[in-house]
Design brief:
Glyco_trans_31, binds 2-acetamido-2-deoxy-beta-D-glucopyranose, globular, transmembrane helix, 32% helix, seven-stranded mixed beta sheet, four-stranded mixed beta sheet, 11 strands, alpha/beta
Length: 314
């Protein structure tokens, strides 16, 4: 009797497993390029991190995707999305998935297997709770977790899991910026003249600071108590109060923006519009179709070779 290989697998896991299969079949033995996109964490070794081609690299970025243990499908999609991007020239962008303590029995097992397979997950010592200090936990943990990495990262970013970064434009944007006291992202308000007097801050879906700023957060214990509330405004207040992140770089709204969902009757605005060719990041990718449209626009499917083995309408 013929039976589906997935017939005993809980329904919700099927998309995740399919993506994992695609991921593996795209590149079953391609450890080198896999490593360059997802270099080892090196958190539990005393040896300094050694990376292929490290000598040509003059910019190192840690991109932390804050997500939840149970978001298996999103992680599988993001791994594919980052793996199939052209790598940045002269830079490494290490993508890590970040969450708090794993509470469920099933998640502990499945996440452990992901770590063995991909080594791209950081589990912080905190409790999952929206807007309740996870940003502080992340920025204060990374300088310690990567303290033995030489050379250290130049920038560390906190990004949501419904955002797609294009790592080459991101690296090119960061390369020209100050390596100290820097704070880069999508600045709000994006039409300053419409909201005079507002505090400026980088919106919470994704921002980067230079490593010295993360080190300062890590050393400034009193920020922990101040971590509640709208985290993106809170974060910018920390920096202002501490006199940090004075090199503030708001990216052009044409290069970082929300996905425009025509189907929902959304109108274009400074923070929301159609895809542009020089995009650094698109936010608000909530479902598979929105992801697919973004990935297609940015040529993620360009590497598909003609074959009698499949036929797809792209
Ligand atoms: C996590 O934090 C708690 C409370 O601060 C502490 O008691 C515990 O030892 C920490 N666990 C780990 C694994 O670091
Ligand atoms: C966005 O692009 C789509 C498809 O190219 C087009 O039909 C639509 O009019 C565009 N929307 C805006 C607001 O420019
Ligand atoms: C995708 O590839 C096409 C064909 O090579 C090219 O014209 C287009 O500019 C590329 N799009 C982006 C966003 O790079």
């Amino acid at each position: 009797m013929l039976s589906s290989p997935f017939s005993h697998v809980p329904f919700l896991l099927v998309p995740f497993l399919l993506l994992a299969l695609i991921y593996l079949s795209v590149s079953p033995n391609d450890h080198f390029s896999l490593r360059s996109a997802f270099a080892p964490c090196n958190t539990n070794s005393n040896a300094p991190a050694q990376r292929p081609g490290a000598a040509d690299v003059d910019l190192r970025v840690l991109l932390g995707v804050l997500t939840l243990p149970s978001s298996y499908e999103r992680r599988a999609l993001l791994r594919l999305a980052y793996k199939l991007q052209p790598p940045p020239t002269g830079a490494t962008v290490d993508v890590r998935f970040v969450f708090c303590n794993v509470a469920k029995e099933e998640d502990a097992v499945l996440v452990a297997m992901e770590i063995i397979a991909y080594d791209d997950i950081l589990v912080l010592n905190c409790t999952e709770n929206m807007n309740d200090g996870k940003t502080y936990d992340f920025f204060s943990a990374v300088p310690k977790l990567f303290a033995d990495q030489v050379p250290s990262y130049d920038y560390v970013g906190k990004v949501d899991d419904d955002i797609y970064y294009r790592v080459s434009p991101l690296a090119d944007a960061l390369r020209s910026k100050a390596r100290r006291d820097a704070y880069y992202g999508f600045e709000w308000p994006c039409e300053p003249e419409t909201r005079p007097g507002d505090e400026r801050f980088m919106v919470g879906w994704g921002y980067f600071v230079s490593w010295d700023v993360a080190a300062w957060i890590s050393e400034t214990e009193e920020l922990r108590g101040a971590a509640k509330g709208a985290e993106d405004m809170t974060f910018s207040r920390w920096l202002r109060r501490g006199g940090k992140g004075k090199n503030m770089y708001g990216e052009k709204p044409s290069r970082m923006y929300d996905y425009l969902n025509d189907g929902w009757g959304e109108k274009a605005a400074c923070f929301r519009h159609n895809f542009t060719a020089d995009t650094v990041a698109v936010h608000k990718l909530k479902d598979r179709r929105q992801w697919a449209r973004a990935l297609k626009f940015f040529n993620a499917t360009q590497g598909l070779k003609p074959s009698k083995m499949y036929h797809l309408d792209l």
